[in-house]
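Quick log. Single chain, no ligands specified.
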Amino acid sequence: MFIVKGISGTPVKAAKIANAVANSFQKNIPEIMSFSRTKIISPAKATVQRSGMSTQTIIAIGTIVGLISAVIIAFMWEIRLAIQNS
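-> predicted structure:
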């Protein structure tokens, strides 16, 4: 089984690229490999939904990680100053 993914600036163009590659593979596979039966299970479709995390989630995670990092750095800085003063 092969999975073909198309990457482009727009989802419609990416789907066209993936379908073109899959169709070309299906036509040319008998010349390349020893089997000739291939079947495209489902053609690529352009999605309108973004994949991955939302921008708000990424910002929230970045803020939390930044705050935790700042507290750790401040704590380590205070320990360093305490050691230097003693």
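The chain has two domains: 1-48, 52-86.
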